Amino acid sequence: MSTYRAPMQEMQFVMNELAGLEQVGKLPGYEDATPDTVTAILEEASKFATEVLDPLNAIGDREGATWQEGGKVRTATGFKDAYRRFAENGWNGLTKNPEHGGQGLPQLVATAVEEMWHSANMAFALCPLLTQGAIEALELCGSDELKATFLPKMVEGVWTGTMNLTEPQAGSDLAAVRTRAVPSDKSGAYKLYGQKIFITYGEQDYTDNIIHLVLARTPTAPEGVKGISLFLVPKFMVNDDGSLGARNDVHCVSIEHKLGIHASPTAVLAYGDHGGAVGYLVGEENRG
Questions:
Q1: What pLDDT digit, counting tens, does each position of 26-45 carry?
Q2: What is the pLDDT of residue 190?
Q3: For the chain, which has fewer Cβ within 10 Å, the N-terminal or C-terminal residue?
Q4: Do domains 8-142 and 144-149+155-282 have the same CATH topology?
Q5: Does domain 8-142 have CATH number 3.90.420.10?
């Protein structure tokens, strides 16, 4: 069985000689990205990839993720503990805003680190990848209230994130999205109804909460892609004190049986089968 070894010399050559790490480190906010610091980060990332993630790759492929009654998903042996170590070591917040608990390092550093994760164990790496995307969407378009409530936990890795675009009748053609978002009695909240498929890490046993970003249509939305809005739908509601509240009406009804990447659960998610999944608008309506 092969063992992953990060191409450190090649990575450092590209970062220093081609991408200009020294110049990047002189930009405002990136003063900590010195060559010595970045080298130390790459070395630790390489160790984690080789010693923790790579040995799990074959195990994950053989065992895969398993759907269980009640909509739970059990991940392959060792993956939950690996994710715990990943989050505790701060890898999830490498480039994220320090205001939300991130380290604020340049994306150039994360690009090399994330190549290691994906090369060593793609099935594992897809979970933080989706979380990164959700964090960036909230940082760019989320309200101050949504940012304060969700970003610190997501940056820390205590909660993960997903992207919910595809539906049974809407794959590449997002104009065909039919998931509905109806304004609720609570100010600023909506009730979502519909089904999403091919949702990477739509359910898992790594974390207590999962933050879904969901494309849907409001009642007055125009047809086509210009009528799509983006909503944040947590698996569990969040109380005012930051603790987890009631279970939201989003459930994993199955996971896909795939040719590969077996350890990454690809979920079918049902929204609103029991009264409506509570969601919050991210950005402007019809501008999702």
A1: 999 999 899 899 999 999 99
A2: 97
A3: N
A4: no
A5: no
| Residue type at 163 in one-letter notation | M
8-state DSSP, 249: S
Which amino acid is present at 56? L
pLDDT of residue 236: 98
Segments making up each domain of the chain, as ranges: 8-142, 144-149+155-282
pLDDT (tens digit per residue) in 174-221: 888 999 999 988 777 999 999 999 999 999 999 999 999 999 999 999
Sequence length of the chain is 288
Judged by DSSP in three states, 253 sits in strand
- Bridging pattern class, strands 229-234 and 209-216: antiparallel
Query: Hey, is 125 helix, strand or coil?
Result: helix
Average pLDDT, the chain: 95
- What is the third-level CATH fold of 144-149+155-282? Butyryl-CoA Dehydrogenase, subunit A; domain 2 (2.40.110)
Determine the 3-state secondary structure of 147 from DSSP: helix
